[in-house]
Amino acid sequence: MRFRFVGVSALALAASVGTSCTRAEPAGEVATRADASLAPAVALVDAAAPTSTATDAGASEPVMHRAERRLMGTIWSVTLVGGSADDAQRAAARAFDEVARLEALLSEWQPDSEISRVNQNAGVAPVPIGPELMACLEASLAIARWSGGAYDISWAALRGIWDFSATSAHVPPSSAQVKALLPLWNYRNIVIDTQKSTAFLKRRGMQIGLGGVAKGYALDRAGELLREAGFENYLMYAGGQVLVHGRRGERPWRVGIQHPREPRHFAFVEVTDGSLATSGDYEHAYTHDGRQYHHILDPKTGFPSDKTRSVTLIGKTALWADAVDTAVFILGPERGLRALESAPGGPFEAAVVDPQLRLHLTESMHDHLLMTAVLEPDGRIGRPLGPDEPRTHPPRAPKGSH
After folding, report:
1. How far apart are CA 159 and CA 242, in angstroms?
2. Helix, strand, or coil here: 181?
3. Other Cβ atoms within 10 Å of 194 Cβ, number
4. DSSP state of 95
C-alpha cells in the first residue's frame, strides 16, 4: 500500500511544513527549519483546543477514520467521519490516487509532465494541454491580473538560482544573477488558447510553476471524490492547507493558526465548509550571514518578500485560497486586505501577521477567530494564554482600518 490508514478517535496532527507559490520550492522536499519551530503552517488543534460549549461537553466522540500518503512533496492526510473502515479506506485511496494523477500532470519537477512540456517549448511553439492544466493556468492568470503581478507563476525562471531543499548549500544568489533573470518573470508572456487547448510561453528561458495552485486544485478534486463516495464530513490536510466539509460530530472542525516565530498556534477558527491556507516566511527558509531567506519571492525584486510574516486565508475552494494567500503575503497587510475585497474566487476571510508580529484581520474574521495568545494593545501577538484564561475574539480595529 502507498498510504497508511488507521482509525482515530481524535485528531491531533503534526505534519510537515507547507508550501506556497510565486515562490521557489524544493523538488520533492519537505523543508525543516533550523530553529525549534517545526510545526506545520496550519496546526490542527481539534484534539488540543479547549472545549467550553455545552454541546462539546456532552457530545460523544464520532467514529473517525484517517489515511495518509506522501504526495506533491508533503504529507496528505484525510480524516473521515462515519461509515465503515473499509468504505473509508476505499474512498481515501481513490482520492489519493487522483492527487497522484494530477501531480503527474501539474508538477514542474517531473520532466514528462504537461507543464514541463510547456516549459521545454518556451519561445518555440504552443503545447496542447488538458483541462486540468488549463483550469490551473486560467485561475493563475486571473489572480496575476487582480494582484498586479504579485502572484505570478512565471517565478519558476528563477528556480535554478534559488534552492531551498534540505540538501542545498543555502547560499542566496547574487543581485546580478537575479537581475539577469527578472525579465523572464512576467505573466503577460503566458498565452493560453482555450479554443485550441494550448499554452505558450513567449520567451525562451521562461518557466512556470504551479506550487501555489496545483495543490489547491488537487484538494478540491479529492474532496469531490470523497463526497461521491458518500462521505459528507471530512477534513483533508496537505502541507499548509486544509479543506473541510461538514462537521466533526456535533461541532465544526477546529483549525489552529501557526505562530510565525514560535512552535505554537496563536489562534484557531471553526470551519464547516471551505479551505484554510497559510503562507509563511518560516516555510522553506534558511539563514545566511545572519539574514533569513524564504521561498516566497517578490516579483519586483526577485528576492524574498519582506512585508509579511504569515497570511492565513479562508475561502470557498482550495484552488483560490491556495494562490490568493500568496498574493496577499507579497502585497503586505494593508494593500493585501484592501485588495481582497475584489479578489477572484472570493469572498475570503484573512488573518495577516506583519513583520512586527501585529495581527491584521478582515472584518468578518473577528467573529470567527478565537485567540490562544494575548493580543497586546498595539496589535502584537503576545504570550500564550494559560489553561484557565478564556479564549476570546480579537477586538475590532478602529473604523476605516484593518
Report:
1. 26
2. helix
3. 10
4. H
What is the spatial distance between Cα 165 and Cα 67, in angstroms, rounded to a whole number? Answer: 26
Fold of 1-344: T-fold (3.10.520)
Question: What tens digit of pLDDT does each residue of 304-338 get?
Answer: 999 999 999 999 999 999 899 999 999 999 999 99
CA–CA separation, 366 vs 353, rounded Å? 14
Q: What crossing angle do the helices spanning 131-146 and 85-106 adopt, rounded to 10°?
A: 70
pLDDT-flagged residues of the chain (< 70): 1-60, 397-402
The closest of 154, 156, 157, 162 to 186, measured between CA atoms, is: 154
CA distance 126 to 109: 20
What's residue 377's pLDDT?
94
Classified as helix, coil or strand, 276 is strand
Residue 123 CB neighbour total at 10 angstroms? 13
Q: Which residue in the block uniquely carries the three cell numbers 521561498? A: 295
Contact at 8 Å (CB) between 253 and 99? Answer: no
Whole-prediction pTM value?
A: 0.84
The answer to whether residues 347 and 317 touch, using CB atoms and an 8 Å cutoff, is no
What sign has the CA pseudo-torsion 269, 355, 374, 396? negative
Helix ranges (DSSP H) in 182-259: 214-228
* C-alpha distances out from residue 138 to 20, 217, 297, Å: 18, 12, 21
What does the radius of gyration of the chain's CA atoms come to, in whole angstroms?
Answer: 20
Grid cell digits, residue 320 = 483560490
Degrees (nearest 5) of the Cα angle 235, 71, 322? 60
Nearest-angstrom CA–CA distance, 76 and 79: 10
Q: What is the full DSSP assignment across 140-184?
A: HHHHHHHTTTSS-GGGGGGTTT---STTS---PPPHHHHHHHGGG
Contacts of 222 (CB under 8 A, 6+ apart): 78, 95, 96, 98, 99, 236, 243
Q: 13: which 3 cell numbers?
A: 496532527
* Amino acid code (one letter) for 222: A
Strand spans (E) along 250-335:
253-258, 265-271, 274-280, 285-288, 291-294, 310-315
Q: Cβ distance 319 to 345 under 8 Å? A: yes
Measured CA to CA, the distance from residue 39 to residue 309 in angstroms comes to 15
What is the reported pLDDT for 1?
33
- Cα torsion through 254, 255, 259, 263, rounded to 10: 80
Closest CA to 297 of 287, 283, 277: 283
- CA 269 from chain centre, in angstroms, equals 16
